[in-house]
Amino acid sequence: MKFRNFKLVGYVIFGRGAFNQLDEILAPQRKGDAPMIFFVDHFFRDKPAFTGRLPLQVKDKIVFIDVTHEPKTSYVDQLRDELQAEFGQVSGIVGIGGGSTMDMAKAVSLMMTNPGSAADYQGWDLLKHPGVYKVGVPTLSGTGAEVSRTTVLTGPTKKLGLNSDFTPFDQIVLDPELVKDAPVNQRFYTAMDCYIHCVESLEGTYLNAFSRSYGEKALELCQEIFLKKPHWDDDADEKLMMASYAGGMSIAYSQVGVAHAVSYGLSYLLGTHHGVGNCIVFDKLEEFYPQGVLEFKEMVARHNITIPQHITKGLSDEQFNKMIDVSMGLAPLWENALGKDWQQQMSRERLRALYERL
Ligand code: NAD
Ligand code: ZN
């Protein structure tokens, strides 16, 4: 097919307090007494004021998702096995948290109906069956995981998503009230994932008018929030939530670029989290994205954010080679960033030199 025909999220609700409508939203999706499973970011484990708002019915269950490490295929398989052993069937999975928890919800939903390990489906369009009903409720804004057709997983041999038409959520609930307590550094790192998605999409060779219109809007919102506003407020939470959505829509029809290609290597080897990893890399990418990096540095300074430095110091040749292998494996990202002849431009030596600067 010449043009990508991509699947979008089924239903979207946006607004302060929209989370209170979850009960009504879920009601028609309940199948007999099969439970709804709530995957909740472990940050909310000891927050009864929050968990008390979940519309739990008799057999429903809350599973706190440990996001100390970003999602692994083994964790997905484990939760799927536990749910199948305990309930057989479930009505659906509601993922409430940042990108990691939302990705866990997507992945476990898919693995409830597809046999084997999640690792068997890392790639493009490998899943055979739609998953169970799934809902995404972001409590951090930036990744675009709420709208994307992937769920990013680290497996035994690679870090790669389950990309498919079955992957997008059936429903998302965008309630800016849920992001208001996010810690300043984390909020910034995740927001910069969105900013970087926009720059990589807008500067990429895959760009078309569809991607551009979403990318420009998301970029403009990020600039307004991080460069113009005198201080953080409710309006900033609302705008950042929509920037994340639009940033995700922008890359749906294009691709990310150098920062993501390089940060995937870091994350595979060192377990560096996605948001901060992208910031560590983007900070050093002036040769690829001069204007974006300049503006990024201004945002970092204005918000007093610390970007970790020298994280690859002391790594062995073998370790550098592993990161380079992971990164070089992401051909579409490099092609989007540098064009069809990217292999001529990005040698292993050039990439090694870049990793050494991080
Ligand atoms: P995250 O989900 O990894 O969470 C980061 C930290 O913030 C965790 O400690 C979490 O407990 C905490 N947290 C979450 N919500 C909070 C809140 N409201 N208040 C306080 N703390 C809160 O962070 P992220 O940056 O949103 O997501 C990164 C993940 O998203 C990675 O696993 C990455 O691979 C994935 N990702 C997926 C896509 C996609 O399209 N599927 C795109 C980009 C990134
Ligand atoms: Zn990203």
TrEMBL record:
<dbReference type="InterPro" id="IPR039697">
    <property type="entry name" value="Alcohol_dehydrogenase_Fe"/>
</dbReference>
<feature type="domain" description="Fe-containing alcohol dehydrogenase-like C-terminal">
    <location>
        <begin position="189"/>
        <end position="291"/>
    </location>
</feature>
<dbReference type="Pfam" id="PF25137">
    <property type="entry name" value="ADH_Fe_C"/>
</dbReference>
<dbReference type="GO" id="GO:0004022">
    <property type="term" value="F:alcohol dehydrogenase (NAD+) activity"/>
</dbReference>
<protein>
    <submittedName>
        <fullName>Iron-containing alcohol dehydrogenase</fullName>
    </submittedName>
</protein>
<keyword id="KW-0560">Oxidoreductase</keyword>
<dbReference type="GO" id="GO:0046872">
    <property type="term" value="F:metal ion binding"/>
</dbReference>
<dbReference type="Pfam" id="PF00465">
    <property type="entry name" value="Fe-ADH"/>
</dbReference>
<feature type="domain" description="Alcohol dehydrogenase iron-type/glycerol dehydrogenase GldA">
    <location>
        <begin position="12"/>
        <end position="176"/>
    </location>
</feature>
<dbReference type="InterPro" id="IPR056798">
    <property type="entry name" value="ADH_Fe_C"/>
</dbReference>
<dbReference type="InterPro" id="IPR001670">
    <property type="entry name" value="ADH_Fe/GldA"/>
</dbReference>
